Amino acid sequence: MKINFQEINLLLQKFRANPYKIFPVLTPHTGYLREFKVKEGDEVLGPSGKWLEKPGTPLFVLERERNLKLIRAQTSGIVQNLKVDLLQKFVEANELILEIKHPLSQEEIIGEILLSALYVIYAEETARFIFTPEIAQRLEKYGLRKAEVWGGEDLLIMTFMKREHFLKLHQEGRFIIYQVYFKPFELVSKGSPLVALCPKEDLPILERIVERIKEEWPV
Amino acid sequence: MKIELHKNLKDLLSLAEYIRDIKGEEFAKIGEIYLQLKKVYENFYDHQEEEIIAIIQEGKKQLEEILIKADQTLTPYEIVKIVRHPQRFTLLDILENVYDSYMELGGDGELNIDPAMVCAKAMLIRRVGDDFYVHQVMVIGHEKGAGEEYRRGGSATPWGNEKALRYMKMAETEGIPIHFFIFTPGAYPIEDYPGAAQQIARNLYHMAKLSIPMISFISEGGSGGAEAIGLADLRLMAEKGYYSVISPEGAAAIVAKLKDTRPPRELVEKMARALKLTAKDNLELGVIDRIIPEPPLGARKNSYEFFKRLKIELIKATDEVILKTRGFKTLTKHALAKQVTDNFSYYVDWELSEDEREILIELRYEKYRKMTQWAVIMPRGLSYTLKEKGENLLRIVGNEIKYRVLKSGQKTVKRLIDNILSESSLLLKPVSDPVKSVYNLIVGKKVRPKLPGMAEEETVFFPSPLGLEDRTVTCPQAEKFGCPDLWIPDLYGEFCGVCPYCGYHFFLDYQWYLQNLFDPGTLKFFDEEIVSTNPLNFEGHSEKLKQDRIRTGLNSAFLSFTAKIGGISVVCGMLVADFRQGTVGAAEGEKIIRAIQLAKISRRPFIMIIHSTGGIRIQEGTVGVVQMPRCTMAVRDYVDAGGLYLVIYDNNSYAGPVASFLGSAPYQFALKSTRLGFAGPRVIHETTGQPPPPDYHSAENALRRGHIQGIWDRRELRKKLFHALLTMGGKNLYYR
Fold first, then answer.
1. What are the CA-CA distances from residue B578 to residues B154, B156, B648, B717 (Å)?
2. How many CB pairs under 8 A join A and B?
3. Nearest to A64 among B470, B472, B693 (CB)
4. Min Cα–Cα distance to chain B from A122, Å
5. CB–CB of B693 and A64 under 8 A?
6. Tell me: the pLDDT tens digits for B248-264?
7. What angle do CA B695, B701, B703 make, to 5 degrees?
8. Is ipTM beyond 0.85?
9. What is the value of pTM for the model shown?
C-alpha cells in the first residue's frame, strides 16, 4: 500500500481555496418563521461543555400550532446566506434558512488528511481493544510514529466479556503506527477508527505535509 | 535562652497573624504590628537578647489589649473566619489534649477510608479526690487537618459517614458512650454508593435508637454533614463555633441568584448575621443545650486551658445524660451542677442497665419532639388539646382491640383450624380423593381464589390545569428520538404529562397527583391550620411566605391527608413545589411528625409523595436543620412499630429531606422525571472542582447506585402504588 499523494494535494488545494465547511440550517418542519436571533455575519457557537450540555447560539424561531420553537446552532461559524425575505412567512420542512460557514481548524484539516491518506483500521464491532503484547512492547520502546508493524502480524486484540479475538494486519509491507484513536480496555463503538498506519517509506513526506499544514493554518 | 525567645517571638507572630486574618489589617493597626514583628523575627540574630525581650514584652501587652478589643467587636462572619482558620483547634488536638489515651480506628492519616472522618477509642480519667476512674468512650468526628489537602477541610464522604456508623454500632455493642465532634463545612457532595444523602439518612435512622449516651460538640456545624453525627442526647457548642443550614457564601449566592460569580462581601456578611449561626443564637433557638466558653477570639491549637475545661464539660455532659435515666440521684445531680474543677466530687458509672437504655431513648425522643415547636403557628389551647388527645386515644383503643385482641385471636384460631385440617386431610386423602374427583366431575372444578386486585376500572385521567392551552409543545428529547410535537390538552390530559413517543415526563402540578392517585372522594386533609413562620426574622421572608400563602392557598409546603387507593386506607404526606419550592421548615417538620404519628396509631401505611423539595428552608437556619433528626426519629419509631413506609420521588428531590426522613425509608421509588441527590450541580462544582454530568442526578443513575428500589412511569402510578401496597405490605399491610 502506498499513500496517494496526488489525492492529498488535491485535498490540500481544496482546503487552501476554501478552508471552510458550509453547514446549511434547514427547517425541521413546516411553520411560520417568526424571528431571527442572528444577523448576517454574526459569529455563532455550537453546543459546548464537557458533555455538550450547553446549547448552541439561538438562530431563529419557528412557530407551529402556537408552539414557538427556538432553533439553535449545531456548529460554530459565521452566519451567511440569511433568508431575510422568509421572515413572518410560512415555510416548508427542510427549507434553507441560513448557512453557517465553519472555518476548519488545523486539527480538523490534519484529521481529514490523515483519515484519507493513511491506512486506518476501524472497530468491527463494539468492544474493548488492546495492542498485542509484542506491539505494545514495541510502542513502549520506540513510541508513536516510530514503532513498526509488518503485514500479516497480529496487531490488536478485540476483547469483550472474556471473548478475545486477534486482529491481523492484512496489508503487505512495513508500517509505522502513526495515530492511536482508542484507550486500552475502554469500550469503542462499532465503526470508530482504532489505529492509523503509515507506510514506512512515506513517513518523511507525510510529516512534511503535516508540518506545512501546521504552518499554513495556525491554531 | 535565645531558642526560647525565638519560640516566644514565633508564637507572638502567629497570634498577630491570626488577629490580622480574622479582623483585617486595618483593625487596631494589627497589619503594621504584624509586619514589625515579622521583620524582627526574620532578622532575629541581628538583635541583642535584651532588645528581643523588650520587643516580646511590648508586643504581648499590645496584642493582649487588641485581642480583648477584637473579641468584643466580633461579627458573625468573623466567627465563621475563626472556625475556618488553620490555627483553630481540630479533633486531633482534642484527642491529644482532652483524652488521656486514644487509638485511631479505621485508618490513620492519609491511609484511611476517609481522612476527614476520624474514629477513635479513647480513655478519659476522672479524678475523685485521690482516686482515679477510667472511662472508655468512642470518639467520632471530622478532622479538618489544618491545611492537609487530603482531609478536604473536614467534608466527610459517604463512605466516611458509613465508617462513623460502623463505630457507633460498635460502641453500642460495647455499651460505651460516644462523643461526637463536628468540624465540617458540609458533607462531600458525591452520589457514589452509599450516597451522600442516603448515608446521612441511614446514620440518623440508626442514631435515633442507639441505646448509649451520645454527646456532640459543634465547632463548625455545616448542615446535613453535621447532622450525620449530630443526633445526640446533649449538644454542646463552642462559643466561637458556628452551626448553620448553609455557608454564608452559599446563602448569599442563592439570595442574589448568582450562578457562576462570587457573591459580594457585604452580602455574605449580611447572610452570616441573618442565618443566626453563632452559639448564642443557636442556644436561643433551642437547637443546642450548652455553650463551652473559649478564650478571646477563639481557642487555638495551644489553648491548653480550653482543653482542660472541655474535658470537664464532656465528663459532666455524659454524667448528666446518664443521671437523667436514673431516679434517685439528687445529691449527685446537685454535685454535678456545682462541679467546676477537674477534681470531681462524685463518680458516675457510665454503664447503663437495660431499663436505663430504654429510658435514654425515650428521653431522646421527647427532647427532639419538643425542639423548635415554638417556631410553628398551630392551634393551641385546652379544648383543642383535649379534642386531639381524645381522638387519638379512641384510635389507639379501637385499633388495639381490632388488631391486637380480635385479629390476633382470630389468627390463632385460624392457625389451629388450618393445622387440624392439614393433618386430617393427609389421613383422609386416600378416602376423600376418589369422592372429590367424582364430585368435581358432576359439579365442576372449584375455582381457586384470586389475589386481591384493584377493581377493573376504566382509566380516566383528570386533566391538569396546565392543559388549558390550545397549542403544541416540543418534547425536549425530540432531537434525539424524533418525537412529534404534542398538543397540550392531550399531553396534560390523556398522556399524564408524558411524551407517548419517548416517555419523557413533563412537570405536572401537585393537584394532578391528588386527583388521579386516590379513590375519588376519599381524600381528607388534616393539620391544615399549621402555618409556616419566619423564626429567624429573615429579611423579606415573611412577605414571601405571605405571597405564597395567597397564591397557593396553602399554609405550608407539606400536605397531610388520609385517603384510599383501591380501597386500601393510607395516610399520606406530600411536599409540593408551589410553596417555597417544597422546602422543609419547622411547620413542615411538625406536620410530617404528626402525619407519621397518625399513621402509627391508626395502623395505616404511610406514603410520602415528593412533588418537589429543594431541601431545608435556608431562611429558617438551624431551626430547619433539626427537622432532619426530628422527622427521621418519627420514621424510625413508625417502622419499628410495624408500619409500612413508602416514598415516591418526582421532579427535584434534593438535600436535607433526602438525607433524613426520605432517604431512611425502606422502600423508595422514583418517577422517570426525578432528579435525586444531595447537592445541586453548582455546589458539586464548587466543592469538587469538577462540573457533574448533566444526568448525574437522574432517576436511572440513582437506581444504578442503589439509592432507590425502582423507577415508575407516571401513567401507571396509581396501579403501581396499589401493587406496591399489596406486595410490600401483603398481609402485614396494616402492621406487621
1. 35, 33, 18, 21
2. 23
3. B472
4. 25
5. no
6. 888 888 888 776 677 88
7. 150
8. no
9. 0.86
